[in-house]
Predict the structure.
Amino acid sequence: MKRLLLSVALAASSLAPLACDLEKTGNQLAADHVMVGTLLSTPQVDVSASALAGYDAGTFGPDGGDVISLPAQTAAAVFLGTRSGENQQPSGVPGASVTVLPVDGQATTLTEDGAGSYSRTSVGEEGFQYQSGATYQFIAAQGGTRYVGQVDNAPVKETIAALHPPEGFLRIDASSALAFDRVAVAEGQDRTLGFVTVVPLSASGAQGQPTYTNVPKTPLQFLQLVGLPGPYREARVTIPGTAFPSSNQTYLVIFQAVRLGGAESDNLFLGSALLAGTAEVGVVRTR
């Protein structure tokens, strides 16, 4: 475990500016505490009730008269752990006070979920909204010590034209793969990471359990992402057919454009993974 985390940290340090503070980097390489954090936003989505019910006449335009609106939501999650010991995963640190905030903005306090995990959503919290372009800090305080991770320049929504055909939703055969191209980036700039989640919708618009996601699931997988982000930066995204297993079913395709940040304070491990991003959403109806 220590060898793997060290390789992740070395990969992260190779991406740092040449003028970085070598003493700070050395402290972060030796730090025992590690943080994984995400701040992800999804916009409001308008879905045709007719299409959800399986009627071909359903539309998604403002004049369709049968639109169900799924509200926008912002969600934050943080894992604070230590990388001592021989476990395959970092050991969670309970009892911390954890906040997420845009620099010079309003802080949102996360709720402790246990085992070093903390989270919050914007449901019932009007002040907790994702801000494109903001620099976000993830702050955990325990016993008078603060651990700070940071993501600079939170990305704007990446518009995927293929997810918005004139009909308003895509029609594909059940169990068929779906591929689309991401927006081109300017020369010399890194593409943001791209995460995909596919969720089935009931006739009433209720979301089921995801049928597919490439979002890392464990703290260790997020840490590995720091060293190997390449697969998430591919220009073409392919969703396997297993994501659309049922016929006559409506699915949401949620594509998150995410920027990767890392440790900001000296006492946080250099390989910490902090991510912020916002989603583009398409609707798929299977035959």
Q: What stands out?
A: The longest strand covers residues 250-263. The two ends are 46 Å apart (CA to CA).
